[in-house]
Amino acid sequence: MNKLELMKTANEIRKGIVTALHSAKAGHPGGSLSATEIFTYLYFEEMNVDPKDPKKADRDRFVLSKGHTAPGLYSTLAQKGFFPKEDLVTLRHTGSYLQGHPDMKHIPGVDMSSGSLGQGISAAVGMAIAGKLDNADYRVYTLLGDGEIQEGQVWEASMLAAHRKLDNLVVIVDNNNLQIDGAITEVNSPYPIDKKFEAFNFHVINIDGNDFDQIDAAFKEAKTVKGQPTAIIAKTVKGKGVSFMENQVGWHGKAPNDEEYKIAMEELEKAGEALCQK
Q1: By C-alpha distance, which of 93, 14, 92, 22 is closest to 257?
Q2: Cβ-proximal residues to 186 (8 Å cutoff; 6+ apart), any chain
Q3: Dihedral of the CA atoms 66, 158, 174, 207 (nearest 10)?
Q4: How far, in Å, CA of 90 to CA of 70, rounded?
Q5: Among candidates 130, 139, 153, which has minimal Cα distance to 222?
Q6: Three-point CA angle 67, 262, 253, nearest 5°
Q7: Confidence of residue 259 (pLDDT cuts 50, 70, 90)
Q8: Residue 268 near residue 239 (C-beta atoms within 8 A)
Q9: DSSP three-state, residue 62
Q10: FRET partner for 140 with CA separation of 20 to 30 A, picked from 99, 161, 170, 260?
Q11: Which family does it belong to (predicted)?
Q12: 167-222: per-residue pLDDT in tens?
């Protein structure tokens, strides 16, 4: 995909996120929207995955360590064709396979159930070790929240990843600077994030995580790294793409009402139309 196509796809994924959350009347828009460009790039450019064969042995693996931003992953999987987009409106409904957190047993394209913060990266490290033991050439990607990296388990997993020289692992930190209770600097600052991962012997790349050119360059660079895992620290805007949600901590974990949904979708429609004129 070229950059314009990626931008159009990201805009469609944002529509799916907002639609799913509005229907659920619950969920996490802020961190789903901040990571939309990363989800888009991974599934439409970077990863070797096949919606027709979600469990193929040589597929690249993705673990959503910040599992509460499932609406972002679900909308991306639907856009890619893993399941019908129409099903997004069943998010968090009784009997729906689209639960509030990813479920590998029921959702096509989900490689790991996640939600308890800190645990996803450990699973990803295990997958990457398995790949090395099997001499497989698949790569493993995991997306963490910047609040999530306050969890000690993240650093235990990182220590092992570097010790095992897992150059088939890419850890992405969605650094939108906000967690459920406020700015990460006020709750329990993990800064400097890049220096911490460097201390754990990761190859570290700092980018604007809402900019496709920088995302593209980062993942291409990661593929050239040998003998150590890569950490991409992606500076993003929480709630990106919906004006009244951007950088507002209150939108970490609440759904838009009918009026807010209408405004958000109008904004995204206009953004889509503007991209079509480019």
Answers
A1: 22
A2: none
A3: -160
A4: 13
A5: 139
A6: 25
A7: very high
A8: no
A9: strand
A10: 99
A11: Belongs to the transketolase family.
A12: 999 999 999 999 999 999 999 999 999 999 999 999 999 999 999 999 999 999 99
N-terminal to C-terminal alpha carbon distance within the chain: 15
Which residue type does 29 have? P
**Confidence at residue 278, expressed as pLDDT on a 0 to 100 scale:** 86
The pair of three-digit structure tokens given for residue 32, joined into one six-digit string: 């789903």
Residue keyed to tokens 């027709």: 52
Q: How many CB atoms lie within 10 A of CB 9?
A: 23
Both structure tokens of 38:
């990363």
Q: Where are the domains of the chain?
A: 3-276
- The amino acid at 186: E
Scanning the structure block, which residue is given the tokens 């096509």? Answer: 108
Question: Can you point out the beta strands (E) in 119-249?
Answer: 140-145, 169-175, 178-179, 182-183, 203-208, 230-235
**Domain made up of 3-276: CATH architecture:** 3-Layer(aba) Sandwich (3.40)
Tokens matching residue 115: 């939600």
Amino acid at 241: G
CA-based R_g, the chain, Å = 17
